[in-house]
Amino acid sequence: MNRLEKTDSLDIVLEISALIEESKQQVVRTANSTLTLLFWQVGKRINEEVLKNERAKYGKQIVATVSAQIELKYGRNFNEKNVRRMMKFASEFSDFEILPPLAAKLSWSHFIELFPLKSMESKIYYAQNAIENNWGKRELRNQIERKAFERNEIANMQFSERQPSLLNTFKDPYLLDFL
Question: How many CB atoms lie within 10 A of CB 100?
């Protein structure tokens, strides 16, 4: 095999490898999105059908029983703690219209990090920034701990009072730290 054939062969292998790797990543993204949406549906179903959207006394027993049976059949993703997270997920992200685009880009772990936030506005802010900046769950947690949303809101209030044209100018919390 001459040198030109080796180069052509190497180029083809690299191109095919890139195609395979991209396809693998697409499978992972699709599986992740599907699983996240499934968790939302499980939580919604339990919230609506079993608990009738109330905090019934018997609800704790029902959730424990249902999760134990589902866990036996489908594994530890459906343990009681995670099923309760699914219920929280469905109640906190009750608008299904906003969920698929977020679930396509964020993992279940990202959503778990968003649960403690008080307002939907802050959850959406962090979710969108996690997508735009390709944050993993650790970086998302770090940004939440650094209160990036709150600092952004304060900066917007200060700038809108002084110069309305500067509203939402500073998107990067690192820049806000610097200023």
Answer: 12
Residue 82, class by beta-carbon neighbours within 10 Å (0-12 exposed, 13-18 middle, 19+ buried)? buried
- Which token pair is 58? 């018997």
pTM: 0.74
The token pair at 93 is: 């992200």
Task: Tell me, rounded to whole angstroms, the distance of Cα 83 from its chain centroid.
Answer: 17
Contact (CB, 8 A) for 47 and 39: no
126 with 117: CB under 8 angstroms?
yes
Which pair of structure tokens corresponds to residue 135?
A: 């944050």
Tokens linked to 171 = 């998107």
Contacts of 110 (CB under 8 A, 6+ apart): 127, 130, 137, 140
Answer for the pair 112, 40: CB distance below 8 angstroms, yes or no: no
State the Cα–Cα distance between residues 45 and 28, nearest whole angstrom.
Answer: 26
Report pLDDT digits (tens) over 34-52: 999 999 999 999 998 777 7
8-state DSSP, 166: G
Is 67 within 8 Å of 78 (Cβ atoms)?
Answer: yes
